[in-house]
Amino acid sequence: MIRSWIKTGAAAVLSRTGMDRVVGSLSGSRGVPIVIGYHRVVEDFAANAATSIPSMLVSRQMLERHLDWIGRRFRFVSLDELSACLDGRNRSRDRIAAITFDDGYRDFYDHALPLLKRKGIPAAVFVVTGLVNTTTVQIHDKLYLLLVRRFASRNWKPADLALMLRRFGILLPNLAAKTPFQATRALLEALPQSSLQRVVSALESQESISEDTFKPFHSLTWEMADKIHRAGITIGSHTRTHVLMTNETEQRVMEEAAGSREEIEKHLGIGVRHFAYPSGQYNRSTVNAVAKAGYQFGYTVCRHRDGRHPWLTVPRTLLWENSCLDFGGAFSGQILDCQVHGAFNVVNRCRQHHRASQEWGNGQR
Ligand SMILES: [Zn+2]
Ligand SMILES: [Zn+2]
């Protein structure tokens, strides 16, 4: 609550005085275009937040409010137009913004696409190619839902998670997760996908979740992806299986980056230039792999840049249902203003270690 008051008050002062852009530039966003990222788009936020990580959700209604606000201040551009501005081919002086959606959930097709078409807004969808045309659920969604159930069960203690991991030989000494979200994040950040799969299987053996519960988490079909592409939306890659690339072997990272690009090209017959790092996690070797796989533009979720590959580390601001609410729970354009200019990055520090190097400017890690 106190945090919300401070956020609202700070946003009002910063936005009214234009200081949001100054603070944004201090946090490393100077000269960086506005790229916004969303995940799932739903009809009813509250209903879906019972089973999904809330910060991955935005209601169609709230998305429209965000887009209307951004659209009054920026010209929406496709990622291809944005990239032309980035590499100097297009010298337009307009203030531009690009809208992106990660993970390729089916609800993009149901809820976001009609809205974007009606408003004539270009956008991009980053698909997880191994999940397209399947009913397989993203591992983070499954893990979170299983942990929600475990944490809610009467005989569960937070320390039980560490005990279960120890049985697999997985030691996470600093695992002090008090909530299912904290536990999900800690596991995702620490473990390769093969270990996550073992944790999920162990949790599933104790708790069965019906297929119906997982339906809202399904991905697009290739037919839908084709229609989305034909509607003028850019299709980019988000790997084959949504591995957090910094936790995997070099070989796996390369297969994920190159394989997903090939699959999109094969199914849709289009070139793929844009890549989004799952959970925004990257380091020098993942950037190298993305470059080697032939991508020209990569999108992260923090303001750090790789000096060797600045266009493969383009920062984005992730927004969701509650990211732009004031202390009274109402939508605040001033908070959105601060969010898009990265003004809150001064306090919301990046948790990643991109590996120290002199090539990384702006105090980056
Ligand atoms: Zn993702
Ligand atoms: Zn970072």
Describe the structure.
Residues 26-30 and 356-365 have low confidence and may be disordered. This protein has helices at residues 2-17, 19-29, 45-49, 60-73, 79-86, 106-119, 139-152, 159-167, 180-190, 193-206, 211-214, 222-230, 250-268, 284-292, 333-340; strands at 34-38, 40-42, 57-59, 75-76, 96-103, 124-127, 234-237, 274-276, 297-299, 317-318. The strands form three sheets. Strands 1, 4, 5, 6, 7 and 10 form a six-stranded parallel β-sheet that branches. Strands 2-3 form a two-stranded parallel sheet. The longest helix has 19 residues, at 250-268. It has 15 helices and ten strands. Helix content is 45%, strand content 10%. The protein is α/β, with parallel strands linked by helices and 365 residues long. The structure holds zinc ion (2 copies).
Q: Can you summarize the main beta sheet? A: 6 strands, parallel
> Could you say which overall geometry the principal axes of the C-alpha atoms support?
globular
Helix share, percent: 40-55%
N-to-C order of helices and strands:
HHEEHEHEHEHEHHHHHHEHEHEEH
Structural class: alpha/beta
Strand tally: 10
Radius of gyration from the CA trace? Answer: 20 Å
Stretches with pLDDT under 50, minimum 5 residues? 26-30, 356-365
- Provide the β-strand percentage band: 5-15%
- Helices, by number, come to 15
In terms of quaternary structure, the protein is single chain
What is the residue-averaged pLDDT?
Answer: 88
C-alpha end-to-end distance: 32 Å
The small molecules bound here are:
zinc ion
